[in-house]
Specification:
The protein has about 100 residues and is mostly helical. The protein has one domain (about 1-104). It is about 85% helix and about 0% strand. It has six helices and no strands. Helix 4 (about 65-80) runs antiparallel to helix 5. The chain is elongated, with a radius of gyration of 19 Å. The chain starts with a helix and ends with a helix.
Length: about 100
């Protein structure tokens, strides 16, 4: 969902920075290449976070041996996914971190 949001929100900025008719008159902005790299990184990160979250959900439902590790990885990746991701990631971390590690 986040990757779709990033794609639609930043699609216009991407179009304006890449389209040849726009760049012909103004020239290429020096930080636009850095923006493109950041945008590609953000989209890839949200896609990876979504896939890991789905795998963690399936692992948690099946109760496999690596459930906790995949859940913790998904929780850490969710922390960069906006307000809902922060809330769900923090809650997942509180639930999946063992009680003795929290008290130490």
């Amino acid at each position: 969902m986040d990757s779709v949001w990033l794609g639609t929100l930043c699609g216009r900025a991407w179009h304006l920075s890449v389209h040849p008719d726009v760049n012909r008159d103004v020239g290429r902005a020096p930080l636009m290449d850095l923006f493109h790299l950041f945008l590609i990184f953000a989209i890839i990160l949200t896609i990876v976070a979504g896939i890991v979250s789905l795998l963690a959900g399936l692992a948690l439902m099946s109760g496999g041996p690596s459930t906790r590790k995949v859940g913790l990885l998904a929780a850490f990746l969710a922390l960069v996914s906006g307000p809902i991701g922060i809330a769900l990631g923090a809650y997942t971390l509180v639930v999946l971190v063992p009680a003795n590690a929290r008290n130490a």
